[in-house]
Amino acid sequence: MQSNLNTNTQENLDSSFDSQDKILAILGAGRWGSALAGLARYNGHQVRLWSPSLGNSIEDVVADVDLVISAISMPGVSPTANQIKAIGLRENIPIVTATKGLDTETTCTPSQIWSACCSDHPIVVLSGPNLSKEIEQELPAATVVASLDIDAANIVQQVFSSKRFRVYTSSDPVGTELGGTLKNVIAIAAGVCDGLHLGTNAKSGLLTRALTEIIRIGTHLGGQKETFFGLSGLGDMLATCNSNLSRNYRVGYGLAEGKTLEEVIAEIETTAEGVNTTNVLIEIARREQINVPISWKVYQLLNNQITPQQAVEALMERDLKPEFYEGIIQPKSSDTHQP
Ligand SMILES: NC(=O)C1=CN([C@@H]2O[C@H](COP(=O)(O)OP(=O)(O)OC[C@H]3O[C@@H](n4cnc5c(N)ncnc54)[C@H](O)[C@@H]3O)[C@@H](O)[C@H]2O)C=CC1
Ligand SMILES: O=C(CO)COP(=O)(O)O
User: Is 339 within 8 Å of 300 (Cβ atoms)?
Assistant: First the structure.
């Protein structure tokens, strides 16, 4: 494997990936785990997939691998990380987390859970505008791999980079992870906006203000501001808020059409993390006193406290303020707290 990507051309990158020199364990064989497996195999790596539904042994799957990748949906992250802790991995091998969610019990991000369970291993976050269906169709896409251990991020960059998947590195795992996680809440709002046919002006206003909200939460929780303008922040928001391939977008769209949350989730079948993330985010916002007006309306909508039309009216009628302001304006209780 080459260590300095900056000096590589795309041609020699592609040829370096022909070697079948890595064995990868991918935990989670759903939409995203399967798409990541396809990208790794395209580069000549050996992939072992594990999920409870496959019924194979997680211990056998992770034995002697060079890299572990978790694409498990949020409820499975903590139990699986604890299983891996009990099994033990080869010394120093990186663990890549590709889950976009927040833990209901602890409000932690997936990388925080993996770091706590496997503190001897470098943790790398993989996140970007990566709708799995397009990746499976071999359409070009870009992503970010972020870690406090930049050598580990470089390894993961090399493993996945190809002419159809362009991988950037970052040293801001928290910001990279939160961008991909928080935009799922906004994708629900965007789906509502389109489902109600509110028009291009409304959607542009919503997404721009939502980015400000994501930055406010994300920087408060330790992410770097510029990360949220990158692929894992704005980039992923654009992908999921504008595509009915996004399940979170489809949740919002379905609610705007008058379906119940249960009906929409049943139609989607696979994971829509934004529903749980909204609930956890509001818990964090209450605890930390963060102003999250758009997420708050999504929360109320998901919890049957308001209709889509009432959410729009409430957002439009909020207190007037400058677009940009220094410091914190105290949140009104109606933005984060009380129904
Ligand atoms: N599908 C996509 O386009 C993308 C998805 N993601 C994220 O990847 C994660 C997984 O998403 P998908 O693969 O689409 O969902 P999915 O519903 O297709 O698959 C979820 C996987 O997690 C496993 N799982 C669920 N609960 C578990 C538990 N308690 N213990 C162990 N394993 C468990 C399931 O067996 C399955 O393999 C989500 O956090 C999602 O936000 C990230 C980028 C793209
Ligand atoms: O995160 C994703 C694309 O980057 C997938 O979005 P959904 O989970 O909304 O389908």
Answer: yes
Question: Helix, strand or coil for residue 160?
Answer: helix
Averaged pLDDT for residues 150-164: 98
> Which residues' Cβ are closer than 6 Å to ligand 2?
100, 129-131, 184, 187, 236, 239-240, 246-248, 273
Beta bridge partners of 170: 146
Length of the chain, in residues? 339
Atom of ligand 2 nearest to the CA of 184: 9
- Cα of 36 vs centre of ligand 2, distance in Å, is 14
Task: Please answer whether residues 138 and 166 qualify as being in contact, where contact means their C-beta atoms are separated by less than 8 angstroms.
Answer: no
pTM score, two decimals? 0.93
How far is 278 from 299, CA to CA, in rounded Å?
Answer: 6
Angle, to 10 degrees, between the axis of helix 150-160 and the axis of helix 31-42?
Answer: 80
Return the CATH number at 209: 1.10.1040.10
- Report CA-CA distances (Å) from 171 to 109, 110, 214, 236, 336: 16, 17, 19, 18, 31
CA separation for the pair 184, 247 (Å, rounded): 9
Give the count of beta carbons closer than 10 Å to the beta carbon of residue 273: 21
- 156 closest CA partner among 271, 165, 328: 165
Find the domain containing 271 and state its range.
178-336
**Contacts with 132 (C-beta within 8 Å, 6 or more apart), sequence order:** 31, 32, 34, 35
Amino acid at residue number 47: V
The amino acid at residue 149 is D
Amino acid at 116: A
Count of the separate structural domains present in the chain: 2
Q: How far is the CA of 75 from the centre of ligand 1 (A)?
A: 9
Q: Quick check: is 297 catalytic?
A: no
Question: Residue 200, CB half-sphere, CA atoms under 13 Å: how many?
Answer: 0
d(CA 178, CA 218): 6
Q: How confident is the model at residue 326 (pLDDT cuts 50, 70, 90)?
A: low
- Same domain? 112 vs 186: no
- What is the value of ipTM here, to two decimals? 0.99
pLDDT tens readout for residues 37-60: 999 999 999 999 999 999 999 999
Q: Name which of 64, 100, 62 is nearest 81 in CA terms.
A: 62
